[in-house]
Amino acid sequence: MYSITKNLTFCYGHRLMNHPGKCKNLHGHSARVAITLEADSLNTQGMVCDFSDINQFAGKWLDDTLDHNMLLHKDDPILPMLQQAGERVMVVDKHPTAEFLAKLIFEHVKTGGFPVTNVSVWETDSANASYSTP
Fold first, then answer.
1. For every one of its 134 residues, what pLDDT tens digit does the chain have, with 9 covering 90 and above?
2. Cα(18)–Cα(28) distance, rounded to whole angstroms?
3. Helix (H) or strand (E) holding 126
4. Which of 5, 1, 2, 19 is nearest to 109 (CA)?
């Protein structure tokens, strides 16, 4: 089995409602994403996938969808005020945790036909969450 991993970055803001600690407050992260692809054999170029193909597909989506965006749960009471002020906000049905982001990115990469097996999202240098195929 061959595997490759492409690292990408984006910045985002969020908060976790009802969190007992600091994460209940609006805050931001400079996130790093590791997208891992696997294949039993290599393509005609001797690759699992060209890194630039992952970058073009996933990197563009990250820039357009998540980068410099505020991710908030649909029930967050601050949501209407931010929307009324014209702020960029992505409304989500689940709490916008690193685990949520890992699965969201995984599912997007999968739609591009990439043989993705794992996506990890680092909120900080020492903390990450992953989503992978069962």
1. 999 999 999 999 999 999 999 999 999 999 999 999 999 999 999 999 999 999 999 999 999 999 999 999 999 999 999 999 999 999 999 999 999 999 999 999 999 999 999 999 999 999 999 999 87
2. 17
3. none
4. 5
Confirm if 115 and 102 have CB atoms less than 8 A apart. no
For 76, the token pair is 């967050």
Regarding the domain delimited by 2-132, which CATH topology (the fold level of the hierarchy) does it fall under? Tetrahydropterin Synthase; Chain A (3.30.479)
Q: Could you tell me where the beta strands, DSSP code E, fall in 1-134?
A: 2-14, 27-39, 69-73, 89-92, 116-124, 127-132
Which sequence spans correspond to the domains of the chain? 2-132
Tokens (6 digits) for 55? 């970058």
